[in-house]
Amino acid sequence: MLEVNLFNTPYLESELESIECLEGTEELVERMKEHVINNPKSTESFEVELSVVVDCFRKKIVAIFNYIEDEDQELEKYIECESVKEVDVVCLA
Fold it and tell me: 70 pLDDT exceeds 80?
């Protein structure tokens, strides 16, 4: 089984907190891991999208992740979060 590790979790949490979406951390990391497991040979950057509801707003978040190259590790992948941005906000009220 492929093990996927996020190299800079504190950065991801900090970026999500700055846009008031810290509660989306776990789901975003799970989606990132699913992408890596489903694309084990990939070495390119990829994005993960997440919609969260905060107060009366639905926010669409996009995080960009990169593979950290380590050719010796076939059963482990290290991933780095490059950026997080809020791309859409909709008022639900």
Answer: no
